[in-house]
UniProtKB/TrEMBL annotation:
GO CC entries: Golgi membrane
Highest taxon above the source species: Eukaryota
Keywords: Golgi apparatus, Membrane, Transmembrane, Transmembrane helix
Membrane-topology annotation of the record: Multi-pass membrane protein
Gene Ontology biological process terms, A to Z: protein secretion; vesicle-mediated transport
Gene name linked to the record: LOC116212693
Compartments reported by the entry: Golgi apparatus membrane; Membrane
UniProt keyword Transmembrane helix, yes or no: yes
Membrane-spanning intervals of the chain: 28-58, 103-125, 131-150
Protein name per UniProt: Golgi apparatus membrane protein TVP23
Keyword Membrane assigned: yes
Family: Belongs to the TVP23 family.
């Protein structure tokens, strides 16, 4: 091993990465291959949407928290309004997140939505409204995770900036107080 060669970072959570990809790939593969081998739309719809729902749940509740340190959910308050809730790890923990895990998380999130979009365009071109429904459900679940995690990431950045500003302000304040108390 060459000591001058940079050390390659491995995935910190290979099992989580595997399941993050598994349901995405399974849903896309089943949808594409079922058109060739299965002649029953109901089976195609149910299995594909089930795999997309499993992917949605795994990404939202497991891989998002483990791979990028983010979690989101949406709830309805007492006034009947939709409220987004976000959780993120503290700044120190976020800084220690594995770059490969994070890269895999974000790229597969966007690539899956792009793949469903392309499949939707093919359904439109072939005038297959029923298959467009399947793609629409799967694309909606993918985009919901993209929107949720993107908002969560922006909220995490705001929290980190607010914490940094608060820390700097308290340090400046304590420095000023100590300077006047010495006199």
């Amino acid at each position: 091993m060459d000591p001058n060669q940079p050390v390659q970072e491995n995935y910190a959570n290979p099992k989580t990465c595997f399941f993050h990809i598994l349901f995405k790939a399974a849903g896309l593969a089943f949808y594409i291959l079922s058109a060739l081998f299965i002649d029953n739309f109901v089976i195609i719809f149910v299995v594909t949407v089930l795999l997309a729902a499993l992917d949605f749940w795994v990404v939202k509740n497991v891989s998002g928290r483990i791979l990028v340190g983010l979690r989101w959910w949406n709830e309805i308050n007492d006034l009947g309004e939709s409220v987004w809730r976000f959780e993120c790890l503290d700044q120190e923990s976020l800084a220690r997140m594995n770059k490969k895990d994070s890269w895999l998380f974000w790229w597969t999130l966007y690539l899956t939505a792009a793949a469903w979009t392309v499949l939707g365009i093919f359904s439109l071109i072939r005038f297959q409204a029923d298959y467009l429904l399947v793609v629409g459900v799967c694309l909606t679940l993918s985009v919901a995770n993209i929107v949720g995690f993107t908002k969560c990431k922006k909220d995490a950045k705001k929290q980190i900036q607010a914490f940094a500003q608060q820390t700097i302000a308290s340090r400046v304040s304590s420095t000023i107080q100590s300077a006047f108390s010495v006199v």
